[in-house]
Design goal:
By secondary structure, the chain is mainly alpha-helical. The protein has a single domain, classed as Helix Hairpins (Orthogonal Bundle), CATH 1.10.287. The protein is built from 3 helices and no strands. It is elongated, with a radius of gyration of 17 Å.
């Protein structure tokens, strides 16, 4: 489920940067991947239209929320196991 959400989010970014930002497909992939990974924009200075800038801003916020949610989904079983090892009860 988490991998599917990553792919969907990455696809939204790639299509948005290609159509609204005018970036080539490979540049849109790099821009989306860097934002999804938390590294920040690469081609932010080359986005000249208001629409592209608004999309970039919304996508950056969306990516941050998705990143936090995915870490929660992926790491929840790990923390659950740690709590069991430490004998914390659910009382």
């Amino acid at each position: 489920m988490a991998i599917g959400l990553i792919c969907l989010s990455l696809g939204i970014g790639i299509i948005g940067y290609h159509t609204l930002g005018g970036l080539a497909w490979e540049d849109a992939l790099v821009e989306s991947s860097m934002l999804m990974g938390g590294q920040g924009p690469v081609y932010g200075q080359s986005l000249t239209t208001v629409t592209a800038k608004l999309f970039s801003s919304a996508y950056a916020l969306f990516s941050g929320i998705v990143l936090i949610a995915l870490f929660g989904i992926i790491l929840a079983p790990v923390f659950h196991r740690i709590l069991h090892r430490l004998h914390f009860s659910e009382k």
